[in-house]
Amino acid sequence: MTKVRVPSGAGESRGPLGLLLVAVPVFLLGWMTVWPILSGLVTTLFPKDAAGFSLELYDRFFSDDYSLDNLRLTLWTCGVTSLILLAVSVPLALYLRFARGPLASYVQTLAMFPMFVPSIILAFAFIRVLGPNGTVDTILNALGLAKIRSPYLTVWGPVIGLVWDNIPLTVLILTSGLGAVPNPAIEAARDVGARPLTLFVHIILPRMWSSIFVVISLTILGLFTAFTLPYVLGPASPEMMGPFMQRTFSDLRNPEMALTQATIVMGFCILFGLFYVRSVARNRRD
Amino acid sequence: MARLTLNALGKTFGTTTAVAAFSLDVKDGELVCLLGPSGSGKSTLLRMVGGFETPTSGEVLIDGEVVTRTPPERRPTAMVFQSHALWTHMNVFGNIAFGLRIRRLPKAEIASRVGRVLALVGLEGYGKRQTNQLSGGQQQRVAIARALVLEPKILLLDEPFASLDQHLRERLREEVRDIQHRLGITTLFVTHGQDEALSLADRIVVLKEGRAEQVGAPAEVYRSPATPFVAGFIGSMNRLPGSVEAGRFRHGALELPLEGVPDGPAELAVRPEHLVVRAAPGGGAASLRRLTDYGTHRIIDLETSEGARLKAQVADGADLPQGPGLQLEPTAWAVFRNDQVIARSPA
């Protein structure tokens, strides 16, 4: 029988080197993510004022109408923003997937543009355009028309800003998902008589679901922790969880309650995180 | 059953001409193979018939009706793609039934028609299988069934067996021929495999750079190639450069009488099975280099005194002497000059 010799060092020496390479990111993940999560859980479940385990902080959050309103507003903003984002980005991604020529390149550049604009600049641009006495109002006034009801400092302010801010990533993910739909599959559907809407519903959409789930998960994860746009463009009361946590921490000087709010937000994020992991796993399986 | 007419069909991509003023008339129930190397325009031609490419010039007619600008979803054609193009999120039944569902046929009729085509392609009982549970050959049968279930007037096949192994390809080829005969469906078949074209087609169109080099029955294209390109592309062909002098083609010691052919350079084309090789004790036109046994036949490699390499098919070959001293006698041949036939062997 012939024995196959494995060159020495081919397998064994890579082990320690590989571990060394991942050591730094693993350490950072532990230090900056896992540790704060554990610390947050321990601090909020074993508060200073209680003798041991207590749900008192969570009880206070869930029995406080203002906190619940903020949570509701955050969930509402997440839902509405995701829906509008999909309504805007799916047609854009479809166009970029199937269109040819220079116009498609310009549209793609335009769709990616918000990625390079910092949120704070976007917020002030929004105020200058859609805020009271902004560009739109000025134009309407010059035309002798009535002013618009500005979305600035209403619940729609953060929605508009967040949609704009999230378009590039959403379009990128959806376009990449659409890349998985081969041209012959589309041509075969047209060949058997599928018109554009049938084609989209029966052939394209089923292959896009995974990308849509990934987009929704990632967007909602980002929206839950969004701060700048909700803080600058949103209403003062109720407010989204990002500004609420910051105000509880620095204005009300109640770090324990801010930590409780953060832990609750993290709970929701973990839910959507699991959703994301499931979508990615499904995508790979397909 | 329908008649397909292509009238001076042309397609250009930028400055590149893919198809140039191509005309063809495909009769009711005929199977025509478009044969040519990569880039010869055969797939572009098929896609123009299917409606996936818009011709730059000319027109496509099905049963006399112009469909040049009609989108694929409204053409009475069905296409089988090289990559199967099955929808992986649907099972076999779903893939075949999709076109019928779009046409809002009753469920019972859909089930009956799908069952019928599944039986036709030998896949009874496979309806509930997922497409990724099928082999390459089975997937291609599903693709064929999906095209046939709509009872199209014209069936278009774009190198449907290219991704399959040789054995499976031969089997499916026979099955497709059988189905096409039974249904009598007018078919346009694109391939770059000469065997496929020779065994399947009623007529072969040999394409080169978007133009038809020759259109004819398989035997005609094989036995009487119109151009050196066709001669070289279909089957194995020996091409011997030489010249015509005083009514004879000469290549070294090999000579052939040609009547009424003006003097000048020429090229002799002869197939290996039409080249008789004999031992010539006094010295001949070629020497034996190698003998290869293919099981069904033997091929000998020869080198002429002028340095040209030839192949000849022999029954045995063991009796031939090594080295120089072989006499060559072409039994069927053609002589070309400037890409035109100037003489052929008597029929």
Please characterize this protein's 3D structure.
The complex is a heterodimer of chains A (286) and B (347). In chain A, 74% of the residues lie in helices and 0% in strands. Chain A is mostly helical and 286 residues long. Chain A folds into two domains: 17-54, no CATH class; 63-123 and 151-285, Orthogonal Bundle (MetI-like fold). In chain A, helix 1 crosses helix 12 (255-285) and helix 3 (65-98) packs across helix 9 (196-224). The two termini of chain A are 41 Å apart. The model of chain A has no long low-confidence stretch (mean pLDDT 87). Chain B has two domains: 4-232, P-loop containing nucleotide triphosphate hydrolases (Rossmann fold); 236-344, OB fold (Dihydrolipoamide Acetyltransferase, E2P) (Beta Barrel). Chain B has helices at residues 42-50, 92-102, 107-120, 136-148, 166-183, 194-200, 218-223, 228-233; strands spanning 4-13, 16-26, 31-35, 57-62, 65-66, 77-80, 154-158, 186-191, 203-208, 211-216, 238-245, 248-251, 254-257, 264-270, 275-279, 286-293, 298-304, 309-314, 323-330, 334-337, 340-344. In chain B, a hairpin with a 4-residue loop joins strand 17 (298-304) and strand 18 (309-314). The model of chain B has no long low-confidence stretch (mean pLDDT 89). The A-B interface holds A 182, 184-185, 187-195, 198, 202-203, 206-207, 286 and B 50-52, 71-74, 77-79, 81-89, 98-99, 102-103, 143, 146-147, 150.
